[in-house]
């Protein structure tokens, strides 16, 4: 039996409908054709693939939320049909200008660019909307389009590698390295626009920011609620990732809620609420439920013991304090989410919230070791998965231009030391957490290891990494019965 030799690159022929016929009306299923001879429909060109692309665009034309979700997954060159990519670009361009992106406005934009006829005309845009009953599944269809794009690029890369193998030009190691690089480039994060800038275009804005900082009274970022920490960091700054790490039970969730309350319900140095100064914040919890977070906030705000709230046994005075705290807390713009579990879910929910609440000031995520990457391929090494999550959270903070407080657990390193002091190197599962973070804060409670410690009631807030400033060890007071930490002066 003879074995057929591998095809040369120029012997593979794609059947590209976009080059052969006008786009058919969107009917829910595209028409795929296979040409004569040895011709194949590439990934993305099958009827079900065309339908996924049409459903994605239809959803984007129906809903701005769908635009946000799809833009996280797809770029315009991921579509098999160039016309679909053209429509995608027009939708995103309108969205960036904060203008509606519906069949009429997109049609007008494409007409202005001279591209309307090439995508099938205004009737095709309306047909895209009519082909999908709801925009809710746009992200699902976008993922299908993205997968087909990756497969198509893998085939193209494979074809080039076949050509390299037949040509056999150069050292074998060089050929192998070039082939590996070609494959790796396919699965990397999709390319972005050419957004390089020159100092002459940006230095003026930097000088303005420096001047404004000098004229501004108080801190420049989101307040932390702790005087010494604010003085050290000037508050949490946009684009920063702040990692707060501790061993279980040392209060990382407690201090995270303190940060959230300081943002949404700020107080002055005397502990008095500053009316009208609160800013919106989000708290994504993968560990606790909404009721438990609410109880912690009410306990801290009303100075009602946490164990009384859990048991429901409160006297008249406690109920009165709780009523006042509930009224104040009920006005806070603290957006709590307990449903997100994977990295893509967290990214999508944060992007949607930022779109809905443009002045969102901060996001808290509790905690990183509970986040999954959401990848269909199981990560063999958890460290790699945490590294991916860590880097993605940093990119999200920069994209949304706000600080993200990311909680993390420490390994058992502190317990092996005589002084029990934690170190940045104790971060569990990934050194990339330290690398990607702008600030790393470690919590140490001496009385957690020695109840009779002379420092009982004190907590060391160890700023172990500070990308733009000094490191230091600060001390605050622990009031865990009220589920809060406070400055020592307010004890």
Task: Describe this protein's structure.
The chain has 491 residues and is of the alpha/beta class. It has 17 helices and 11 strands. The chain has helices at 47-62, 64-73, 82-96, 103-113, 121-130, 138-167, 172-187, 199-215, 227-233, 252-264, 290-302, 306-311, 316-330, 343-356, 382-400, 432-436, 446-449; strands spanning 13-14, 39-40, 241-246, 281-285, 334-337, 362-366, 404-409, 439-444, 458-466, 472-479, 484-487. Helix 1 (47-62) crosses helix 6 (138-167). The longest helix is centred in the first third of the chain and has 30 residues, at 138-167. Residues 1-22, 27-38 and 189-193 have low confidence and may be disordered.
Highlighted features:
disordered N terminus, 491 residues, nine-stranded mixed β-sheet, 11 strands, two-stranded parallel sheet
List the helices and strands and how they pair.
Layout: E1 13-14, E2 39-40, H1 47-62, H2 64-73, H3 82-96, H4 103-113, H5 121-130, H6 138-167, H7 172-187, H8 199-215, H9 227-233, E3 241-246, H10 252-264, E4 281-285, H11 290-302, H12 306-311, H13 316-330, E5 334-337, H14 343-356, E6 362-366, H15 382-400, E7 404-409, H16 432-436, E8 439-444, H17 446-449, E9 458-466, E10 472-479, E11 484-487
Parallel strand pairs: 1-2, 3-7, 3-8, 4-5, 4-6, 6-7
Antiparallel strand pairs: 8-9, 9-10, 10-11
Helix pairs in contact: 1-2, 1-3, 1-5, 1-6, 2-6, 2-14, 3-4, 4-5, 6-7, 10-11, 11-13, 14-15
């Amino acid at each position: 039996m003879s074995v057929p030799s591998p095809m040369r690159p120029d012997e593979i022929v794609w059947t590209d409908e976009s080059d052969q016929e006008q786009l058919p009306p969107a009917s829910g299923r595209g028409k795929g054709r296979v040409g004569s001879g040895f011709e194949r429909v590439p990934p993305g060109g099958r009827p079900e693939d065309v339908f996924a692309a049409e459903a994605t665009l239809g959803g984007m034309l129906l809903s701005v939320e769908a635009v946000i979700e799809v833009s996280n997954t797809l770029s315009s060159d991921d579509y098999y049909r160039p016309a679909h990519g053209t429509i995608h670009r027009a939708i995103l361009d309108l969205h960036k200008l904060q203008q509606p992106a519906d069949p009429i406005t997109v049609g007008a934009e494409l007409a202005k660019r001279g591209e309307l006829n090439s995508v099938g005309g205004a009737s095709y845009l309306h047909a895209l909307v009519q082909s999908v009953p709801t925009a809710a599944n746009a992200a699902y269809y976008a993922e299908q389009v993205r997968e087909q794009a990756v497969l198509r690029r893998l085939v193209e890369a494979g074809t080039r590698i076949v050509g390299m193998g037949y040509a056999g030009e150069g050292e074998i190691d060089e050929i192998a390295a070039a082939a590996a690089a070609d494959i790796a480039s396919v699965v990397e994060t999709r390319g972005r626009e050419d957004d390089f800038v020159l100092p002459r275009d940006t230095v003026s804005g930097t000088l303005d920011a420096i001047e404004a900082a000098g004229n501004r009274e108080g801190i420049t970022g989101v307040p932390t609620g702790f005087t010494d920490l604010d003085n050290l960091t000037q508050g949490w700054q946009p684009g920063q990732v702040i990692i707060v790490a501790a061993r279980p039970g040392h209060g990382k969730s407690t201090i995270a809620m303190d940060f959230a309350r300081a943002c949404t319900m700020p107080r002055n140095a005397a502990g008095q609420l500053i009316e009208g100064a609160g800013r919106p914040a989000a708290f994504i919890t993968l560990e606790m439920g909404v009721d438990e977070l609410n109880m912690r906030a009410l306990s801290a705000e009303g100075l009602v013991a946490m164990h009384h709230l859990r048991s429901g046994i409160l006297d008249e005075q406690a109920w009165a304090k709780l009523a006042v705290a509930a009224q104040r807390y009920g006005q806070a713009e603290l957006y709590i989410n307990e449903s997100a579990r994977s990295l893509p879910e967290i990214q999508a929910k944060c992007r949607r919230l930022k779109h809905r609440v443009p002045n969102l000031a901060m996001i808290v995520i509790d905690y990183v070791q509970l986040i999954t990457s959401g990848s269909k391929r199981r990560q063999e090494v958890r460290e790699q998965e945490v590294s991916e999550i860590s880097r993605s959270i940093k990119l999200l903070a920069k994209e949304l231009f706000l600080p993200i407080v990311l909680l993390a657990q420490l390994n058992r390193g502190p317990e092996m030391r005589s002084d029990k002091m934690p170190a940045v190197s104790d971060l569990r599962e990934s050194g990339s957490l330290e690398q990607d973070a702008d600030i790393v804060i470690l919590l140490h409670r001496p009385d957690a290891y020695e109840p009779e410690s002379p420092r009982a009631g004190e907590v060391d807030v160890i700023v172990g990494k500070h990308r733009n400033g000094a490191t230091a060890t600060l001390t605050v007071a622990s009031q865990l019965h009220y589920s809060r930490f406070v400055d020592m002066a307010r004890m």
